[in-house]
Amino acid sequence: MKDGRHLVWILDDEWVDHSVEKAILEQNGFEVKVTRSETLEEDLPQYAPYVDGVIVQVGFPCQAELINKLDSCRVITASSVGYNHIDVEAATGKGIIVSHVPEFCSEEVSDHTITHMLTITRRFPAYHRQVKGGKWAPMDTLPIQRFSKNTVGLLGFGLIARKVARKLKPFGVRIITHAPTAPQEVLAEYAVETVSFNELLKQSTILSLHIPLRPENKNIISYEQLMMMPRGSFIVNTSRGGLINEEDLYQAIFEGHIAGAGLDVLLNEPPNPNDPLLAMDEVFVTPHSGYISEDALEELKNKTCQNIIDGVAGKPLVKTLNSQVLNKIRL
Questions:
Q1: Rounded (10°) CA dihedral 117, 120, 124, 127
Q2: What's the domain count of the chain?
Q3: Which is the catalytic residue, given 6, 116, 162, 288?
Q4: Are 70 and 168 part of one and the same domain?
Q5: Burial per residue of 302-311, b for 16 or more beta-carbon CB atoms within 10 angstroms, e otherwise
Q6: Is residue 47 part of a domain?
Q7: Residue 329 above 60 pLDDT?
Q8: 240 included as an active-site residue
Q9: DSSP per residue over 44-73, as a string?
Q10: Are 156 and 278 in the same domain?
Q11: Burial of 294 (0-12, 13-18, 19+ CB in 10 A)
Q12: Are residues 247 and 272 in the same domain?
């Protein structure tokens, strides 16, 4: 609290317009301050000791050095599904609840995932560049297999992967998953076959990633894993860029073992314009845009603000990442 008012601090390098969040929070009695990376050092002593809640956009690091200065904060919320940019352990040590917004864009990301699958298997990037270059040769991009012949492997089976599975059913593809923590009744409901991680790789002609980026998942798909996939297979990532070793992916595509990739996320965002993956006809990249729709953004902003309002008031949040740990500490 500062000057008798609750203070919310928005840390964001991506969005410029925060009028929606400001309107919601100010109506609930909060003062709102916005900081970008270039002003963080200047703003840190002015706001960090006094804020009651912090909103952190994807890509803005909220690590221990910053969190340890949040002396009055009750809640940090990621304005996103992902939260790997927030040091949850450091926040727990300060007694701060950490939350995120896990369900706001499941429709959009699942649609985006399937769009990538169809785009790369039907060779749209190569066709597009060909026609733009003045060439008209539909046979030039073979081989193209009938889509229904594919085995789609889903690494992880959370809400987005489940929607992908449901939407893919009418295409007639076989769907398998590796998701050790998924409830058996959920797997049975979707009639999805469960396999080991190695079998997922060996059987998937399209591999789609649906797991969070945690230390144990960093580069979970590297050269060894790519070589386990069938020759001519594809990979789609609408989750987090660090899950794939991109140098290894480039090599596997260059060697002809992997036929293509659809990527909505990269290790470095935005990427270096000279990144060799960007020059490959076999690779289709979108700018971490799978979550985008007017409906999703409205839902995200509303739910993000509600996390702050409820967290500062000490009310239960829809989704917390460390409440069990904090409860044990307080006991």
A1: -160
A2: 2
A3: 288
A4: no
A5: ebbbbbbbbb
A6: yes
A7: no
A8: yes
A9: HHHHTTT-SEEEE-TTS-B-HHHHTT-SS-
A10: yes
A11: exposed
A12: yes
| Cα-only R_g, the chain | 22
Q: Is residue 129 situated within a structural domain? A: yes
Active-site hit among 123, 240, 246, 282:
240
Q: Would you say residue 308 lies in a domain?
A: yes
- Domain span at residue 307 reads 6-104+294-330
Say whether 269 is catalytic.
yes
Inside any domain, residue 1:
no
Please report the pLDDT score of residue 331 as a whole number: 39
pLDDT digit string (tens) for 91-114? 999 999 999 998 899 999 999 999
Q: Tokens 């992997």 belong to which residue?
A: 258
Burial class (CB in 10 A: 0-12, 13-18, 19+), 329: exposed
CATH number at residue 178: 3.40.50.720
**DSSP letter (8 states) at residue 230:** P
Tell whether the model's pLDDT for residue 44 goes beyond 70: yes
pLDDT band at 255 (very low <50, low <70, confident <90, very high): very high
Q: 104 CB contacts (<8 Å, ≥6 apart)?
A: 81, 291, 296, 299, 300, 303
Q: Return the pLDDT at 323.
A: 78
Active-site residue identified among 269, 282, 298, 330:
269
Q: Tell me the pLDDT tens digit for each residue of 136-192.
A: 999 988 789 999 999 999 999 999 999 999 999 999 999 999 999 999 999 999 999
